[in-house]
Amino acid sequence: MKRINSMLYITIIPLLIFVALFMFVPLFTMISGSFQEDGGAFTFNQYKEIFTNPYYWKAFENSILISLLSSLIGIIAAVFATYAITRFPKRVQERLLVITNLTSNFAGIPLAFGFIVLLGNSGLFTLLFRQFGIDMSASFNLYSWSGLTVIYVYFQLPLAIMLLYPMYHAIQDNWKEAASLLGASPFQFWKRIGLPVLLPGIAGTFSILFANAMGAYASAYALTGSNYNLVPVRIGALVSGDIFARPELGSALGVLLGLTLLAAMLVNEWLTRKVRRDLL
Q1: Confidence of residue 65 (pLDDT cuts 50, 70, 90)
Q2: Is 164 exposed, middle or buried (0-12, 13-18, 19+ CB in 10 A)?
């Protein structure tokens, strides 16, 4: 038995090495780099510049705003969409989940390119509507803040559905039958029983969506370049260098972005525990 346990420990060593090399080493490098000057000397100047420069404050404001907005729209749409999926036969549900899973992986540069082909200035639907005398550019511009929000919602929605779908199976059919026998309407059932059961899961999913949107880079950059001031775009510009690279300042922004996500996770954990405690 001891020999088997030793072999199990040995087999997990490659995984630990992989995690160390691709997670902890970059994390340590980023944190240590955020406290260095160009010459390598220890300094707080990177953080001082971020906290005193309104340009970087605006980047965090924009990122938090679009993350909250897209996460809120995504979670509301996903609650109804997931419920609708559960009403289909099991075979149809499985096919819809396969499509949803494929859609959730369609992000980044391919997603931005797809939207440009369909809704760009010379996109398929833009030209089609123009043939019918409808000018889409008068009410919607893909390369604006509204277009960016639509793309964020697009890759948030499938992820939310995949996370919420198992939670609906926690609501048993006999609960609905018992509530119906006691005279409760479907609305009353979901208000008093269904929604409170789902609420902790919805809160947790919202937190994941927020973190997912805060760290999104490729789609936003491919669509708008550096025209919109978002934290991931600023980090990319500082690391790659639009004019000249400043990886130390980019590392400091990355650390603050990570702390923002950690704070959001802690707030979500507190809210989830509070909701569960109130339900008991």
Answers
A1: very high
A2: buried
66: exposed, middle or buried (Cβ count in 10 Å: 0-12, 13-18, 19+): buried
Residues of the chain with pLDDT > 70, as a percent, come to: 94
Nearest Cα to Cα of residue 168 among 176, 179, 178: 176
Strands of 183-231, DSSP E? none
CA distance linking residue 278 with residue 280, whole number of Å: 6
> What is the share, in percent, of the chain residues with pLDDT greater than 90?
11
Which of 234, 228, 224 is closest to 256 using CA atoms? 234
- Mean pLDDT, the chain, integer: 83
> By CB neighbour count within 10 A (0-12 exposed, 13-18 middle, 19+ buried), where does 142 fall?
buried
